[in-house]
Amino acid sequence: MSRFFKSLFGQVLLALVIGVVVGVVWPEFAVKLKPLGDGFIRLIKMIIPILVFCVVVHGIAGTGDLKRVGRVGVKALVYFEVVTTIALGLGLLLGFVFHPGTGMNVDPSKLDPSALSSYTSNAEKLAHGGVVDFLMRLIPNTVGGAFATGDVLQVLLFAILFGCALALLGKRGAPISSFIESLSHVIFKIMGILIKVAPLGVLGAIAYTVGGYGIGSLTQLGALVALFYVAVAIFVFVILGLILRLAGFNIFKLLGYLREELMVVLATTSSDAVLPQVMSKLKRMGIKDSTVGLVIPTGYSFNLDAFSIYITLAAVFIAQATNTHITMAHLLTILVVALITSKGAHGVPGSAIVVLAATLQAIPDIPAIGLVLVLSVDWFMGIARALGNLTGNCVATVVVASWEGDIDKERARAVLDGRHVPATEDDADAEISGVAAGA
Length: 439
Known about the structure:
By secondary structure, the chain is mainly alpha-helical. It has helices spanning 2-6, 8-25, 27-31, 34-63, 66-98, 117-137, 143-149, 152-169, 174-195, 198-213, 222-246, 251-257, 259-268, 275-284, 289-302, 305-321, 328-341, 351-360, 371-375, 378-404, 409-417, 425-433.
């Protein structure tokens, strides 16, 4: 038992239980613990840009094969589009079959629009910016600006260019490549220090939630929330499970391997909080640095599987709740528009509501004010969104690595089975960051 509570998983689980108790017994005090959760997420976000830069540059420069790097990128994007489309379709299908909003008979004119005021401007920019605007936003005004704002896609773009340049320089770029590799070890060491406070972050986040919303907030979430959780479960265990099985792996073993990260995401509702640890664990499985460095950061913006389910399901729910008749043309419009608006939403304040608002702007028949209904339960749906998105990106990395032959499958199976594997340099980083198996 003592060994269990010395592990990160045990400590996070204990913090989760304590947070619920504190929220129930001392709700006013629990609400004041919110900075613990917010602070932890900010600490992790602080190192994400430089970590992504180091991993991507080192991975590309180390391979020296720019054609292979480009091939991995193209395969990842194709995978993202196919799987995201399936997720969007699943949300539409379940909403159309189960009618979660039918019977609410909400009068849109009686809803308070002030609750949505903070999301309006961002939604208009996302809806009217188009593909060109999105592509332009990938290019930072300055390199330093990309790191300062923490925009992962902008950092990724610069890292790819930097890594390609190093690879083309050959021996002349070796000193810089060696420096970046050493810098990455320093960043992993910092991550190891930060991850030790994860239980405090979890305690603060869950205590605030229970204290602010009540214990009932954890159970009585309504038909829409329940259906969304079922949808995410179907997507993860059936669709992603089948995809991963075709690659030769088991979804349950992968989830077990990522249990610490999933617990942190469960409490903080942020997949950002575990991005560095996830990258370490995937490398420990035997996946090459360059593949992990390309697929995971890109997937955080282009492969939001659970987020996609949410957008289409919530749109159908609002239509049903406001007694708005929707045709097959409406459904197809939602599907196509959401496929575009969901890209690059990562990092936008209130991204779920913003993207949903942007999607509904393409369908005037559905009253956008109905977003107020979804806003009231958005936090709870955010838990499943974050868990589903994280799982989807981990599966994507394993699958793309399998396609490209960038994974040592025997090592990966041994790691997922919990068997002893020979130590590698990546294991050293995992040990430093505290995310090795059983940590």
